[in-house]
Specification:
- This protein is α+β, with helices and mostly antiparallel strands.
- The protein has two domains: 276 residues, no CATH class; 150 residues, no CATH class.
- The chain is built from 18 helices and 15 strands.
- Strands 10-11-12-13-15-14 form a six-stranded antiparallel sheet, sandwiched between helices.
- A hairpin with a 5-residue loop joins strand 2 and strand 3.
- The termini are far apart.
- The N terminus is likely disordered.
């Protein structure tokens, strides 16, 4: 009988919260999310990019701009600060906060191993994570879908279909989460074999499946063999410029690496700290990563326990989230801790080596295992069908991630059961893709006129 009473109580609570979410439409109707009109006083996108480059390694900033110049999609990936400004100053806000990714685009999802060595599909980048309106993630994700569709040559109708499918997937999943218990939401995940069954992308299938079963495809031993040379105590990280190299002795990226690693161990769970303590720091090299992160301090650390026992960690600089000016400051003084806390809250399972640290010269970092059993898609090689399927998978995962920190019933009540919200967001995504095209051409002009320096790398 107690169980039945609890179920009724849960149902009543959910109905009340659904109603609260639905009531928000009176102040912020779902259709107000439709379209995009740039404000008259909209911030100069090039000035925002220049602002985001302050404090980065000067020698790598031109490489960042060079990589961003490849297409409107690569530009979008590297320009999170521009969309953060637009979302924060010129779009409606439901007032429902969740822990958001902050840079939610198609290439910030992928497959990776849980600590139990199961392979799952989830969000995999949290540099900009912060509590903020949940719809900001949805808008950035859907804009990325429409932009990616254009880059791979799809018709506008096909781009729109992929976006609509994604938003419907988000809406349906968030309402499913609203009917779950807190623990059911917490345990929800998308297994890699589901991705492999639905998408034909060869690289992602190889990462997710081996011999027909979910299995590791890129273990830490394979990573060590790829990134290092030598044997035993003489093992070292192999230079592979321009993406991996040892800096000159007078140009250290992490000035007190041994102490940085000591501080990192202090943030780990006791058993994991004990495990890491069995290793010693053998080598450190600069790694040029991603798109928006290029120029921030990032290193690969080679740790050795025995002659043939290597562990590679990535030490990545954590800077203030691009959302802070619009959603409020993080409650964490250390941005490495902000990233780690956000990742643990949003992901179904996180890297057991995830921790944070800082260097003597004031830079903050988070640390994670490098490339262990990870895989991602090549968006530019996708077909229209693959893009549509993949977009829905990403949106489904995003809904689960939001439900871990926000009230899914309130979001579910707001988005409702009709396609009103879907249509509004699809219209926004198409209009914002146009804005991104305009900003991209301004960016190329800034390079051509010499305002920004770009080079290959």
């Amino acid at each position: 009988m107690a169980s039945t009473i609890d179920e009724h109580a849960q149902s009543d609570i959910s109905a009340d919260v659904f109603a609260e979410g639905k009531a928000i439409r009176l102040a912020v109707s779902r259709s107000t999310h439709s379209g995009w009109d740039a404000a008259v006083d909209r911030a100069d996108p090039i000035a925002l990019l220049e602002e985001s480059s302050v404090g980065r390694l000067p020698s790598l900033i031109p490489i960042r701009y060079g990589r961003m110049s490849a297409s409107p999609f690569t530009f979008f990936r590297g320009a999170a600060i521009i969309m953060a400004s637009d979302l924060g100053t010129s779009t409606p806000n439901t007032g429902i906060f969740a822990q958001v990714c902050g840079d939610c685009h198609l290439e910030n999802f992928g497959v990776f191993a849980t600590p139990e060595r199961n392979i799952i599909f989830d969000i995999n980048d949290f540099d900009e994570t912060l509590p903020a309106p949940w719809e900001w993630d949805v808008k950035r994700l859907t804009a990325s879908i429409h932009i990616a569709g254009r880059v791979i040559g799809l018709a506008e109708k096909q781009c729109m279909k992929a976006v609509l499918t994604a938003v419907r997937g988000y809406r349906e999943q968030i309402r499913l989460c609203a009917g779950m218990t807190a623990l059911e939401v917490w345990y929800s995940r998308v297994d890699a074999h589901v991705v492999a069954q639905q998408i034909s992308d060869a690289a992602l299938r190889r990462a997710a499946v081996k011999n027909g079963k979910t299995a590791p495809a890129y273990t830490h031993e394979m990573v060590a063999d790829e990134y290092t040379e030598g044997v035993g105590k003489d093992r070292f990280i192999a230079d592979k410029p321009p993406n991996l190299f040892h800096p000159p002795a007078d140009n250290e990226v992490i000035v007190d690496a041994q102490q940085v690693m000591k501080r990192y161990r202090e943030t780990l769970r006791e058993d994991i700290a004990h495990l890491v303590g069995r290793y010693h720091l053998a080598d450190l090299a600069v790694k040029v990563v991603g798109m928006g992160s290029i120029g921030t301090r990032c290193a690969v650390a080679l740790l050795m326990a025995k002659n043939d026992d290597a562990l590679l960690l990535q030490i990545k600089e954590a800077r203030p989230s691009v959302l802070e000016d619009y959603a409020g400051k993080s409650r964490y003084a250390d941005h490495g801790q902000r990233v780690v806390a956000g990742q643990r809250l949003m992901q179904a399972a996180s890297d057991m080596f995830l921790g944070w640290t800082f260097s003597a010269d004031g830079h903050q970092f988070y640390v994670r295992q490098l490339s262990d059993m990870k895989g991602s898609v090549q968006i530019t090689a996708m077909s229209a069908d693959d893009l549509t399927v993949y977009a829905k998978l990403c949106a489904t995962v995003l809904a689960i991630a939001h439900a871990r920190s926000a009230d899914a019933a309130k979001i579910g009540g707001y988005v409702g059961t009709s396609e009103t919200f879907d249509d509004a967001i699809a219209a926004f995504a198409a209009a914002y893709a146009d804005q991104n095209d305009r900003d991209y051409h301004k960016f190329l002009k800034a390079i051509k006129t010499g305002r920004l320096e770009a080079k290959e790398g």
